[in-house]
Amino acid sequence: MLTPTMPLVMRFVLTAAVMLPACLHQFGTDTPRGTRRYTAGSMTAPSRTADSLLQPFRLGDLTLPNRVVMAPLTRGRARRERIPNPLMAEYYVQRASAGLIVAEATTISEQANGWLESPGIYSDAMEAGWKHVTQAVHAAGGRIFLQLWHMGRASHSDFHDGSLPVSASAVKIDGDGINTPLGKKPYETPRALETWEIANVVADYRRAAARARAAGFDGVEIHAANGYLLDQFLQSKTNLRTDDYGGSIEKRARLLKEVVEAVSAEWPAHRVGVRISPNGVFNDMGSPNFREQFTHVATVLDRCGLAYLHVVDGLAFGFHKLGEHMTLAEFRRVFRGPLMGNCGYSLETAEQAVAEGLADLIAFGRPFISNPDLVDRFRNGWPLAQPADMAAWYSPTGAQGYTDFPAHSSGG
């Protein structure tokens, strides 16, 4: 029995125990409904219009006016306090014509931090800051999810008062270093989380999800991609554990499954998405058994009734080259819910993916930086603005390179 006086971790463990069968057996073990198989011969030449991409889409109980999703983009404008501010609200309002906005990666706890001036969702002030953002987006007619983030080993002790970042195992990123509050530093070997600590991390995700709901978001996306903590647990390259959270494909997926269950205790599952990056090399990722691992992950998530599965299937962000890259068609075979493609899509390739049924939604990242009216540009055949200078992507430069990109109608 759950009681209000129980510690949150204990309440989570009991809740998860109750929820587990529902998530695992919601759709039974029969052949997935709506499974479609694709062959190379079924593909057609890309369309130069956005006829399918601009059609409405029913996402659970939300109606999206189009299938263009604004991907989560880390922009580093939350200042040192990590509190969302009016400038961030303006930025998202400018892009509210997207069918869905997935707001930037937002840390779930102090332990989760590792990026300069990125926002959080673990204090009353952060929650209040995000509430102003969601109210502004809704007033502009938009819909917005929040991406929940724990950076794991992709962090540094400078962010944690000298304590090492945590991960699945003590495996250091092989990279050129990390920007910390004290300057650029080499990556450190992280500390492997003790088994008993993992319940605390799961509870942090649940608390963050509850705050996101209180802040007025329409849903949340669990960030299990791009070499961050949940991805570090999923992949054999970074997970060398021998306890219940490592050693097999099934055990490596356990933490993600527990996080999904915890977040779904605060939100209806159809308001929860998950992002994965099976082909990615960012943050020194890529495992030899990636295809088996991520096929299993998608199969498990298929049983949870999620809003969507967000797959970074494109290779524009790097590819580990450990086999043939995974495609949306592969995920269609094992995941019956809405599928979102991402990374390097153009109007033509996005339209083709939706028209062919490979994806229900397509997320665009970099194009939204310099094209706040991206949907209108697609609809009207207007040219895209020049890509933003990479120096402006993450720099804490305020409005410069952030909210100063004009819409086409005003000279963009």
Description:
It contains 13 helices and 14 strands. The chain has one domain: TIM Barrel, CATH 3.20.20. Strands 3-4-5-10-11-12-13-14 form an 8-stranded parallel barrel, surrounded by 5 helices. Strand 12 (308-311), helix 9 and strand 13 form a beta-alpha-beta unit. Helix content is 30%, strand content 13%. The radius of gyration is 20 Å and the shape is globular. The chain is of the alpha/beta class and 412 residues long.
In short:
By secondary structure, the chain is α/β, with parallel strands linked by helices. The protein has one domain: Alpha-Beta Barrel (TIM Barrel), CATH 3.20.20.70.
Give the total of domains: 1
CATH top level? Answer: Alpha Beta
Largest sheet: 8 strands, parallel, barrel
Low-confidence stretches: 1-22, 24-47
What would the average pLDDT be, to the nearest integer? Answer: 88
**Distinct helical segment count:** 13
CATH topology name, in short, is TIM Barrel
CATH superfamily: Aldolase class I
One letter per element, helices H and strands E, the order comes to HEEEHEHEEEEEHEHHHEHEHEHEHHH
Cα-to-Cα separation, first versus last residue: 59 Å
Counting copies of identical and different chains, the oligomeric state is single chain
**Rg of Cα set:** 20 Å
What's the architecture in CATH terms? Alpha-Beta Barrel
Helix content: 25-40%
Shape: globular
